[in-house]
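OP here, attaching both records as promised.
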Amino acid sequence: DASIIHLFTGHRRYDVRMELIGVAAMSHPEAKFFRGNFEKLLDEAELLGVDGIVVGATRPEMIREARRRLPNVRIFSPGVGAQGAEPGSAIAAGADFEIVGRSILGSEDPKLEAMRVVEAQRGVIHGRS
């Protein structure tokens, strides 16, 4: 079990018996607060000792910085497909997981789209990007 939290609320960790995933950057264009405070949010993630962070797939430079700063924290990246990031691009930048639901559910052929996403991700993982 895990809970997603906003890192801008501070770094006090309550006696929570589940993993914590902190939002460090979002993928949509209006998320200016996150871009302007990204380094501080990574500081909060480190102080809090989160198990994972959310960094939008449309922000590969932020994914790379998060991976450099927090090498043992899982990175979840929304924004693949629906918000413009290509499948496999966030993984190539250092993310562990890409959030791809809308690109699959909104396609005319969800099975074909899922296969396309998986093939792109496998290509990156196996060095064929």
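Record two, same layout:
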Amino acid sequence: MRYPFIILVLLSISLNLSAGKYVVTWMDTLDNSGDDDAYAIAVDPDGYLYVTGMSYINSNYWALTLKYSPSGSIVWADTFVCGAFDGFMGITVDESEFIYTTGSAYIGTDIDCITVKYDSTGTIIWVDTLDLGGDEYGYGIATDKTGDVYVTGYTFDGSNYDCFTVRYDSDGNTVWVDTIDNGRDDTSHDIVTDGLGHVYITGSLSTGSNIYFYTVKYDTSGELLWSDSPTSAGQGVAYGIAIDVNGNVYVTGYLYRSGESDYLTIKYSPDGNILHVDTLDNASTEEAKGIFIDMQGNIYLTGRTYIQNWDYLTVKYDTMWNIVWMDTIDMGSDDEAEGVVVDLLGNVFVTGRSYIGSNKDYLTVKYSKFVDAGIISITSPDTGYTDSSYTPTILVKNNSYEDTLNIDIACYVDSAGIHVYTDLKSVFSLTPGDSTGIVFDPWNTPSQPNDYTLRFSLLTTDMDPENDTLSKPLYVREATGIFYNDSNFKLHPPSLCRPGSVITYYINKKAPYTLLIIGVDGRLIKRIKGNGKGSHRLILPELPTGIYFIKLLQAGNSMDARFILVKQ
């Protein structure tokens, strides 16, 4: 059923550039005037996002599913009701972009598990209810490569909770159902499949006064292959499960200890051997709810942390379990994240709920990798000389988190708002964190002194426009130095130079040459070797104030000139 929503809000977030690695590119809250709780999230290969949960509408809870475009616009929203207290807790999308949700509804005299299949337009394809004789709560849902659907959750018979898992074919027909009863309370909260058709579920197992993570592996026919409840890891409840490209399984949730809780994540081999145990203590109380593994093996966790109130807490680990990024979101009151996914471009999406005003609202956030190139400095001098050439130079840097960039940069010399010089240069494959100098074509300065503005602009779109432009005054002054000119060379050093000043020289013959800078005491300061006919430029290095000599040598010919260098 489609329902006219009261409030749909898309917030454009000013980028928090201090995050360094990821920035929030959009954030959306949904408020239907009552409580709205998002519990699960999925993303398709095209970057469309799906969020599901429940919404209090017309004095009843309805299951509510949203589809977002990659830019954060809502494509469609569907409310589903087949009884009372309907709500979805799990969502997934297959390679054909069919969407599957699972949850529960009060039907007749008890609660049943509800599973729904949608097409990409939000049209319902089939609905199934599962009633095992007690109250059934659907929590996790997954698909395999054949299009079959797997749902897990728990059933309550009036005395104990037991895990259940059901397999459907793509048309919604039940293939098999399995329940697990270890004698006390057993719950299952999430499910995943591997490329071989194996099924993994995770949740909790109670041994009386204690409760522990509980993870199970099934084969394709529903036969239990192994189960594990690692009591040595401590008491806790698992809520999320994921699998990497090598078939290793990761479960996450929270660990109880000393009156608080911490994120607890366990990595298993496909055979059920524990490969790694990780806890995250943010100096407060933390509860992990969702997990995602990307194609590179990076691990993403989300949940909540208590810092004066509950806040979203999302963490990224590399394959060696180093934390490479962490972010919290605080909308002012309690904010509790439930699920996390990553699209093929590396964008991270988190959903859950936020207490805004007097009610809870859906809160969905998109993070994108920080992409930025910036101009660090203008390295060419601020003074040029008449009837000579001036070469603009700058230093640019790739400030991005992971992206290698191609950068286009424009250079302008302006006189009273009119461009008297323009040039465009490109930098290719500049890796993150690296910088490079850029030399533009020389500008032939006018014959009369004047004041100009030298300006540079990056033409490549990025996330921080504040460092994309840089300018400074450029003064063209009368050339008062001596011209040195013969049939072999032309040399024109200004009479007064500074470190960074440019001395232009011209070689008439195409042959190897040498340029020497010599101190007044005869000491060799710098030697430059070149080859070629044409105009060349020398940028003076940092030198003490004093008199210096230039000597040009080529094929037995030479020219000498002198200049005075001052610091100010």
